[in-house]
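User: Predict Dihydrolipoamide acetyltransferase component of pyruvate dehydrogenase complex's structure from this.
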Amino acid sequence: MKAFTLPDLGEGLAESEIVQWHINIGDTVTTDQVVVTVETAKATVDVPAPYSGKIIHRYGNEGDTINIGQCLLEIDELRTSSALSTIEEREPESNENASATVVGKISQLDKHVDIDHFSYDEVHAIHANSITNTEHPLIATPSARLLAQKLGVKIEDIDGSGANHLIIDNDIYQAYQQQTPGTELLKGSRRNMAKNMAQSHHDVAAVTITEEAHLYHWHKNDDITVSLVQAINNACHIEPALNAWFDADTMTRCLHKTVNIGIAVDSTHGLYVPVLHHAEQYHNEGIRRWIDRTAASIRGRKISRHQLQKATITLSNYGAIAGIYATPVVTPPQVAIVGAGKIMDKVIMEGERISSVKVLPLSITFDHRACTGGEAARFIKALVHSLEHPTHDKIE
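Assistant:
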């Protein structure tokens, strides 16, 4: 029997959320058959089986958070008679370089772990004072012990869900939720958002400026999100300082010629920011089709990692729900984010005449380490001008 652990999904992502199991206990799987879909850093990944066999046990339910190296499945491996004879003739090989693998290469490189010799740092995980009044000793991963201390959970009362009753992080979270009713563990995109916002608050010298765009040519059925995307693209070409990345460690700034706009999308699963790459190549209808198609992917939790990467500036159209002005948060290495409030009627003076006009409140937060106040002011001025004097000359 073999234990299949969660492989390294790339880019230093240490944890994932189980979105959907594609197999059940007792099923027979083949090599590279997708067994589970997980979500990490807001992107979903299909994890294939490393070898053929019968599913004896699976660990974790849909919605549970798991870490790299944590056991996913126990598989009774199927081998042909020729394969067995080949294995018997083969000399034992060193496991020094065995490690979790990147998805897509699992069948060739995956570490096969004997269930009787589980590899969760067991030498360090076994409690020095094992419980003598239970059927099995208390065994827990180091991270689970640390988590139990932080949350005030009595680890001695927990029956681990891992192999040989190994206590893992998810067991601690479940115990904590039981002793503190109403407690919700942040998962998936919400967990990632919490980390990103904390990092931004710590790293960015954030300054917010506000302005209003008078929408003299506004029509009831106009698509404000599409108009904002076009206006941001135009403003980035007029003042490129805000369409940039900043690296504080090397004190370097990269000004981008291509405009990749991250568009914040609210969902029941949390906040997602898919990226419209090469926004300058889209016309209005193309932008709307992209938004609708991407929103459908987010609702179905099928957004890919590529769709969430390489934004050079971000748009948050929170006014579609509520709100006038805000202090939106910059996500490094980007240096700016545009926030749009709800459109309102405003009474203004035009000479000696009083009139009413639709007004769009705008808030721009920028990283003052990488942008000057003048650059930010010129950017928002260009943004307002584009919204007040829209053009439709972009092609997809």
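The chain has a mean pLDDT of 81.
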